[in-house]
Design brief:
Blueprint: H1 2-24, H2 28-48, H3 52-76, H4 81-84, H5 92-114, H6 116-119, H7 132-140, H8 145-166, H9 178-182, H10 186-189
Helix pairs in contact: 1-2, 1-5, 2-3, 2-5
Length: 201
């Protein structure tokens, strides 16, 4: 159990550090990268607890989809546009560091699982035929159904708020007036001028 405890405290420490980086980072892109690391650390903790379904969903849904949406929202909100336009190389060191941390942790976890029988460091195995997906669904839609619905409403409000922020009026923004374009008349747009023909000298 010693190696498993070491991994747990290591992942937890990195998780807390990444969460603090999200809160205190002044650059929005850096905050998003720290949030990716936070989600990944949570997935590692789920894998330690043998909840593989939750870990995979956390990586695929949040890291793979939600974080891309966050990046698009950050770009659309024009937050610190000047620093964002300097190129991707500005954020390369942080991205490489996050990727290295995740790779090292995956190697540690895989090695621990491969040595579990010899070292006796894993959790007690579940009985044959156990499905953590079924257990999660039975708990989520019975005991925590109201919390699940509230979370769905909060996410919907967050999407609406993000769209509202991107559609706000900004100085210098060019917008079309569709009703004015449809109601235009040809005689208001075209003026025919009659001129006398000129003779060639």
């Amino acid at each position: 159990m010693l190696f498993q405890a070491i991994l747990f405290y290591l992942f937890s420490a990195v998780l807390i550090g990444a969460a603090l980086g999200v809160v205190f980072s002044r650059n929005p892109v850096h905050a998003v990268m720290f949030l990716v690391l936070t989600f990944f650390q949570s997935a590692m903790l789920w894998l330690l607890a043998e909840a593989e379904f939750l870990a995979i969903v956390l990586v695929l849904v949040y890291v793979g989809a939600v974080m891309v949406l966050f990046l698009f929202v950050v770009m659309m909100l024009d937050i610190n546009v000047e620093s964002i336009q300097r190129g991707l190389t500005r954020y390369a060191p942080l991205a490489i560091g996050v990727a290295l941390i995740m790779a090292i942790e995956l190697v540690q976890l895989i090695w621990m699982r491969s040595q579990a029988d010899a070292m006796a460091t894993a959790f007690a195995p579940y009985p044959e035929g156990y499905s953590n997906t079924k257990a999660l669904g039975s708990v989520l839609y019975t005991e925590h159904v109201y919390a699940f619905e509230i979370a769905a409403v909060i996410l919907l409000l967050a999407i609406v708020a993000a769209i509202t922020l991107t559609m706000r009026k900004r100085p210098g923004l060019k917008a079309q007036n569709i009703s004015a374009q449809v109601a235009v008349r040809a005689k208001d747009r075209i003026r025919v001028v009659k001129m006398d023909a000129e003779k060639k000298q």
